[in-house]
Design a protein that fits this description.
The complex is a heterodimer of chains A (251) and B (327).
Chain A (H helix, E strand, L loop, with lengths): L2 E12 L2 E12 L3 E5 L6 H7 L10 E9 L2 E2 L7 H7 E4 L10 H11 L6 H14 L3 H4 L12 H13 L5 E5 L7 H14 L4 E5 L3 H7 L2 E6 L2 E7 H6 L4 H7 L4
Parallel strand pairs in A: 3-8, 3-9, 6-7, 7-8
Antiparallel strand pairs in A: 1-2, 1-4, 4-5, 9-10
Helix pairs in contact in A: 3-4, 3-6, 4-6
Chain B lengths: L2 H12 L6 H41 L2 H6 L3 E2 L4 E2 L2 H32 L2 H16 L2 H27 L16 H24 L4 H9 L4 H30 L2 H6 L17 H8 L9 H36 L1
Antiparallel strand pairs in B: 1-2
Classes of the chains: A alpha/beta (251), B mainly alpha (327).
Chain lengths: 251, 327
């Protein structure tokens, strides 16, 4: 198993409150890693440390390293926009940009000047909408506003928009929590299809979803990583008392 | 006990005599507060009606078009042309707004999009203080600093580089004039424009910023592609609100604008805006026939223009702010 992201001695403070305590983990390449744990345990903080979204909140202090293929993304010489191009994020609530469906998919590609002409953009839009499983539903109304889509369709559009900038990693911050069961299932099966090509890290608070998706599991509690390992090992034979209690639904 | 009996009993417990002391107090308080809340509305109506009534003598004596488009102001000869004053107001306001808007836009973008919370918590009170400086102090500053600056620095520069362009030609080299008034006004309306623009920027949900940043856009790309298109109408409204403040500004302007009733052709010309006309002359030479009515009709014109500006921009701004709370 090849490591894609390595987190070393990561500490995160919001003002005086410590949100992550000395986190050390390795995230395997082209697998789905699921971060789970009770509310407020630092799952989302850990996830957002991976695309440098933490620094968007004032008063956040970060120490330690996040190595992406060996490069510390917090190094001063690293360009944060390049990090975010390589590490895509699927947010908790779908956030279509206030423009057409087509322009949403083009947005990131255009930001990075990734294509030469309209023809290439058109082909790419189709390609990524197909990957996101949305093409069939929207190909006749690509120039309608993205907000006219249902919320489940919006989330798949956001997935297409994220994939269009050719990331290596997909982060998902409870990406199905705002969706109905069928849309959730749709997103989940996309993520499973995509894991051949992308390293995927998902935060979830539903244990069943974790069991469906995970190849690798990180269990957190109170800002600390309690246990991390292969999903089949952790789920069948947790090494820590707290993990066992969580898996049994005791808290 | 039957069902109907039960209902009667319960109902009886809930219905009290209509006028207990505490309900009377409550009703009294509610009505009193309502009357005071209504006062501003009544005041605006009274002022408007009073101005219309007091303007009637001159409106009956001359056609409105003669007043508004009349170029000569010689009350002793019975000539009441408002055009120089209307154009003077327009010139001064336009120069003030044109000077104020670009830096205000940059400052509000910086404060709303780039600045850390600490910078913001320092800069915003300072801007509010700028709004707290009394207009007469701005007037003195204009007199002592801006007028000489226009006279000694800007006018020679303009003569040298822009002399051929008529709106930049220096016809009356004193420093007093539209440009000096515009500079003073720009500084005076800046805090209002910045704070309204800042509010408008904060109506854009963070989800949109994050969606753009998440695909690797820079902050500037996010501002240009996502945020600015969202706030367009609000920015216009902020500018119009600033303009309405500038239209009515009196004392600071009349101290530096020169107060010459002429039709300006250059930003270096002296002018005589409407508020300055009213403030300088009302109460003097009132024996001249129709003078009182002339000045009050000038006030009416000013009031109507400012009300329209204010109402339009407030409607837009309130709609945008409502969207902020709705999302």
């Amino acid at each position: 198993m090849e490591t894609h992201i390595q987190v070393k001695n990561l500490n995160v403070y919001y003002g005086k409150q410590q949100a992550l305590k000395d986190v050390n983990i390795e995230i395997p390449k082209k697998q789905i890693t699921v971060i789970m744990g009770p509310s407020g345990c630092g799952k989302t903080t850990l996830l957002k440390s991976l695309n440098r979204f933490l620094e968007l909140t004032d008063g956040t202090q970060i120490t330690g390293e996040v190595l992406l293929d060996g490069t510390n993304i917090y190094d001063r010489e690293v360009d944060v926009t390049e990090v975010r191009k390589v590490v895509g994020l699927l947010a908790q609530r779908p956030s279509p940009l206030p423009m057409s469906i087509y322009d949403n998919v083009v947005y990131g590609m255009n930001i990075h000047r990734m294509k030469k002409d309209r023809k290439e953009y058109k082909a790419a839009v189709r390609h990524y909408l197909e990957i996101a499983g949305l093409w069939e539903e929207v190909h006749k109304r690509l120039h309608d506003p993205a907000t006219s889509l249902s919320i489940g369709q919006q989330q798949r559009l956001c997935l297409a928009r994220g994939l269009a900038v050719e990331p290596e990693i997909i982060l998902g911050d409870e990406p199905t929590s705002a969706l109905d069961p069928i849309s959730s299932q749709n997103i989940e099966s996309r993520l499973i299809d995509l894991k051949q090509q992308y390293t995927t890290v998902i935060v979830t608070h539903t244990l069943r979803q974790a069991k469906r998706l995970a190849d690798y599991v990180i269990y957190m509690y109170m800002g600390e990583v309690i246990e991390a390992g292969l999903a089949k090992d952790v789920f069948s034979n947790p090494q820590h008392e707290r993990t066992r209690q969580y898996l049994e639904g005791l808290f | 006990m039957s069902a109907s009996q039960l209902i009667q009993k319960t109902a009886g417990r809930l219905i009290r005599p209509a006028h207990t002391p505490r309900t009377r107090q409550n009703n009294f308080a509610q009505r009193t507060f309502f009357v005071f809340t209504l006062l501003p509305v009544i005041l605006i109506l009274i002022v408007t009606v009073a101005l219309i009534v007091r303007s009637l003598p001159i409106l009956n004596a001359y056609p409105l078009s003669d007043l508004i488009f009349g170029k000569v102001w010689k009350p002793t000869n019975g000539q009441f042309g408002f055009l120089p004053f209307i154009l003077g107001t327009f010139w001064v306001t336009a120069v003030g707004v044109i000077l104020a808007v670009p830096p205000c836009l940059l400052v509000s973008i910086y404060l709303a999009e780039y600045a850390h919370a600490k910078t913001r918590s320092f800069a915003k009170p300072v801007l509010d203080l700028l709004a707290a400086i009394p207009p007469v102090v701005y007037g003195v500053w204009g007199l002592l600093a801006i007028v000489p600056f226009v006279d000694k620095v800007l006018a020679p520069l303009s003569t040298r580089w822009l002399g051929a362009v008529s709106i930049f030609s220096v016809n009356q080299p004193t420093g007093f004039g539209i440009l000096a008034a515009g500079i003073v006004l720009a500084v005076m309306i800046a805090p209002l424009i910045i704070s309204v623009m800042y509010e408008i920027f904060s109506t854009v949900p963070n989800d949109l910023r994050h969606a753009s940043l998440a695909v690797g856009a820079t902050q500037w790309q996010t501002i240009r592609n996502i945020i600015l298109p969202q706030v367009g109408p609000g920015i216009i409204a902020a500018i119009v609100l600033g303009a309405s403040r500038a239209l009515g500004e009196t004392i600071a302007v009349l101290m530096v604008v020169g107060n010459v009733p002429q039709i300006p052709t250059s930003i270096f010309d002296s002018a005589y805006p409407l508020p300055a006309l009213i403030a300088n002359n009302y109460g003097e030479m009132m024996s001249i026939p129709l003078y009182d009515a002339a000045l009050l009709s000038a006030a009416l014109v000013l009031l109507v223009v400012i009300l329209i500006f204010n109402i339009l921009s407030m409607l837009v701004i309130q709609r945008m702010l409502r969207r902020k709370w709705a999302s």
